[in-house]
Amino acid sequence: MGKERSGGGSPERLPPGKAGLVVSTLRLDGIVRAPNGMIAVVSNPQQRVYFLRDGDQLYDGRVERITMDAVSFNETGKDAFGKPVDRTVTKRLYPSPGEQR
Predict the structure, then answer these.
(1) Pick the CATH number of 17-91 from 1.20.5.420, 2.30.30.830, 1.20.1200.10, 1.20.1600.10
(2) 34 contacts: CB under 8 Å, gap ≥ 6
(3) What pTM did the predictor assign?
């Protein structure tokens, strides 16, 4: 399903819905405290809005934790030698100067 282009390394075809979201392309638009947990409001480059919860599986990672001001993702990728690498990516609602949103 997620075929890679030979040049850029970004997926060509992604599954629909949350399963097709790529961590590096997400923008954090808001965070809501709901009775049954925190909900992160994110958008993709196509301006589609999604609501994420702790543990949601994405195309290249998973939602680790949602707080009132940030969302942490466990992103799965590959290093230069093709070896699988996991890293934690945190997107803040109000990024500090120089930090990507």
Answers:
(1) 2.30.30.830
(2) none
(3) 0.79
